[in-house]
Amino acid sequence: MDIVMNADALNRFLDSEFPQVAAEYRVEQVNETGLVARLAVGEAHLRPGGTVSGPSIFALADLAIYCAILARIGPVALAVTTNASIDFMRKPEAGRDLIADCRLLKLGRVLAVAEALIYSAGGAEPVARCSMTYSIPPKS
Q1: Is there a contact between 122 and 53 (Cβ–Cβ < 8 Å)?
Q2: What's the CA gap between 121 and 39, in Å, rounded?
């Protein structure tokens, strides 16, 4: 799968199309199989007890997979999630950003399937695993 948008292009796309969340999320690297993205964890992402909330972890996985697909097909803003499954495996480490290591499994004309492992920055064990299917709109 050829890369058509690198990390800088994806971050500019997020800044332009999703300014409401772009400051929290960054694509750090696009590679041959997927990409790596970061959530800058702040107070808004925490739940009682000081751990990162499940919706924040899910949002990082969704954004990472979305960007991994766009890295291959270009800036198609209307690609949408059609199926998602997430396993929360352990508590994220306090005071650390979250990192999504995303891998594209299939990229077809109308559907894409990918998975993301979510880690606390610097951690060796994943805190969550997510698989998603995206619908890709037809080319105009």
Answers
A1: no
A2: 10
Query: What pLDDT was estimated at residue 115?
Result: 98
CA dihedral defined by 41, 57, 101, 32, rounded to 10 degrees?
-110
Two structure tokens written together for 108: 């077809």
pLDDT in tens, 46-90: 988 888 999 999 999 999 999 999 999 999 888 999 999 999 999
Domains of the chain: 7-135 (3.10.129.10)
Q: What is the largest CA-CA distance in the chain?
A: 48
* 3-state SS, one letter per residue, for 43-72: HHHEECCCEECHHHHHHHHHHHHHHHHHHH
Stated pTM of the model: 0.94
